[in-house]
Amino acid sequence: MSAGDDASSGGLPPGVLEPLPPVFQGELDSTMTLPLDVRPVTDADTAAIEALHDRVSGPGRYAKSSYRVREGLTGHSRWCHGVWTGGVLVAAIRFTPISIGGRAGPLLLGPLAVERRLKGEG
User: Fold this and answer.
1) Rounded to whole angstroms, how far apart are CA atoms 74 and 76?
2) Tens digits of residue pLDDT in 40-98
3) What count of other Cβ atoms lies within 10 Å of the Cβ of residue 18?
4) Phi, psi values for residue 53, rounded to 5°
5) What predicted TM-score, i.e. pTM, was given to this entire model?
6) Cα dihedral sign for 41, 85, 27, 5?
7) Mean pLDDT of the residues in the chain
8) pLDDT value for 3
9) Roughly how many angstroms between the first and final C-alpha of the chain, as a whole number?
10) Which of 54, 89, 91, 121 is 20 to 30 A away from residue 36, measured at CA?
């Protein structure tokens, strides 16, 4: 996807914006507050989540062992959440159910992605 693509031309789905919306273009003031919508993610959010991970982590993330554990898994667990502002995904966290020693129950945390302009803002 390139910066010239848009949803009206069939390029980017809703919630996937390049370049970033104006709120991310200037400096953030620590007194600023943004309206945030926190909710569980669905399969419909996959493209927006991947675009966010591309922006904040790049392609090197696939070399991490946590990605090897998740290979072949589809969908999102009920513990995965996203944060939207102005209809744009700005943060996402994933929890993947795993088993250890054949016993189910633990959750693998990550990846956690936050727009660079919002990191450290609370």
Assistant:
1) 7
2) 999 899 899 989 988 888 777 777 777 777 777 777 888 999 999 888 899 999 898 88
3) 15
4) -65, -35
5) 0.67
6) positive
7) 75
8) 36
9) 30
10) 54
Residue type, 89: L
Mean pLDDT of 106-117: 88
Count of H helices and E strands in the chain?
2, 4
Q: DSSP code of 52?
A: H
The one-letter code for the residue type at 109 is L
**Selection from 48, 18, 20, 16 nearest residue 34 by Cα:** 20
- The answer, yes or no, to whether residue 31 has pLDDT greater than 80, is no
Compute the distance between CA of residue 67 and CA of residue 110 in angstroms, rounded to an integer.
Answer: 9
Hey, what are 7's tokens?
């949803």
Distance separating alpha carbons of residues 77 and 84, to the nearest angstrom: 18
CA distance 121 to 119: 5
Spatial distance between the Cα atoms of 98 and 62, rounded to a whole number of angstroms: 18
